[in-house]
Every structure is written in structure tokens, then in C-alpha cells.
Amino acid sequence: MSHTTTCDLHGPHEPHQHGHSHGLIDPSIRRSRAGLRAVGASLAVLGGTAAIQAVIYVATGSVALLADLIHNAGDAATAFPLGIAFALRSARAERWAGRAVVLAIFISACVAGYEALLRLIDPEPPGALPALALAGLIGFAGNWIAAGIRTRAGRRLDSPALIADGAHARADAYVSLAVVAGAAAVAVGLDVADPLIGLAITAVILRITYESWRTIGGRH
């Protein structure tokens, strides 16, 4: 009687060539690739958002928009240390990338606050108010999309750095709406609203800095 084995069903040599290797990817490599895809996608979204806002800032001169623009550009730049961490497939590098994220948030807060204080001392109302409001809506949409990308990937990959960055971007989405409010306030004659909103955005950024640091510091 003929006995058919698994080897016979796959051919005389196939199990030895493919049985334990074909189609398998090391989990660390798979995680690295997934992290790089998420980081790259959020960089594209936030980079595009900041570029559009920069063009509108030139036309409006709004310090509130400048604060939002600086923050969005800084947030986009955090993709680079995160990308390096995932490329290295190092948990330690990823933790340091998380700290770099927090540092970028803090620096953006300092720059935004300084510019807002200067404009408060020397008031200059922004122009092109419809374009200013549009810039705020663009900032909201860009940050909301980036937040979704980062948060989903962070939870899937158990990455505290990506989760912190996702929370940061989600809060930024609402911060961008303050630019829209500022445009409306200036339109009815409240010129001081622009630098005040710039300072308010700074305060929110500082709060995000603290919360993100707790997220990163709470992981061992």
C-alpha cells in the first residue's frame, strides 16, 4: 500500500526549501516598516498643511496663524527622529524619539509665545481675513488626519512615542480652530484678538508638552 506523506504532496524537495522560511518576516522588521509608513504619512499630511499655511501667513501677517504654523511645522519635523527610531528597530531609540517629540513641542511653544508678545506690544491687525479663516480650517483638517494615522499605528505597534504624537496632533486640530475665531474677532474690530489667541495657542502647546512628557516618562 502506498503511503502519501506531506512531503509527497508538496514534491520531493519543496518542504526543505520553503517549509520554514517562505513568506515569513521577522516581527521587528514588520513593526519597523509599519512605523515608517505611519510616520511618513503623517509627515506628508502635516508638511503639506504647514506649507499651505505659510503661503497664507505671508498674505495675512497673523501672529495667531504664525503660532499655529510654527507648531504644525515642528510637529511635522518630529517625524524624522521617530522614523530613525523605527528604522533602527530599537525600543531605546524610540523612547529617545518620544523625548525629541516633547522637546519640539516645547520649542514651538516658546517661539509662538515670543512672537505673540511682540505683536501684543506693537499691534498690527492681520489682513485677508477669509484666507486666514481658511488657514485655520486647513490646520484643523491636517492635524485631525495626522492624529488618526499616528494614534492607530501607535496602538497597533504599542509605541508610546506615536501615541503621544497622536494626542498632540488631535489637540492641535482644535487649536487651529482658534485661528478661525481670531479672524472672526478681528473682522468685528477686535484687533487685539490676534496676539491674544497666539498666546492662548502657546498655553495649549505648553499643556500638551506636559501631558506628552508624562506619556513618555510613564513608560519603562
Question: What order do the SSEs take from the amino end to the carboxyl end, as H and E?
Answer: HHHHHHHHH
Beta-strand content: under 5%
What is the third-level CATH name, the topology?
A: Alpha-lytic protease prodomain-like
Portion of residues in helices?
over 70%
Q: Could you characterize what this model shows?
A:
It is a single chain. With 220 residues, the protein is mostly helical. The protein has one domain: Alpha-lytic protease prodomain-like (Up-down Bundle), CATH 1.20.1510. It contains nine helices and no strands. It has helices spanning 6-10, 14-18, 27-60, 63-77, 79-88, 91-121, 129-157, 160-187, 193-217. Helix 3 packs antiparallel against helix 5. The longest helix has 34 residues, at 27-60. The protein is elongated, with a radius of gyration of 23 Å. The N and C termini lie far apart (61 Å). The model is unreliable at 2-26 (pLDDT under 50).
SSE arrangement:
Elements: H1 6-10, H2 14-18, H3 27-60, H4 63-77, H5 79-88, H6 91-121, H7 129-157, H8 160-187, H9 193-217
Helix pairs in contact: 3-4, 3-5, 3-7, 4-6, 4-7, 4-8, 4-9, 5-6, 6-8, 6-9, 7-8, 8-9
Descriptive terms for the model:
elongated; mainly alpha; single chain; 9 helices; Alpha-lytic protease prodomain-like; 220 residues; 0% strand; disordered N terminus
Short description:
The protein is 83% helix and 0% strand.
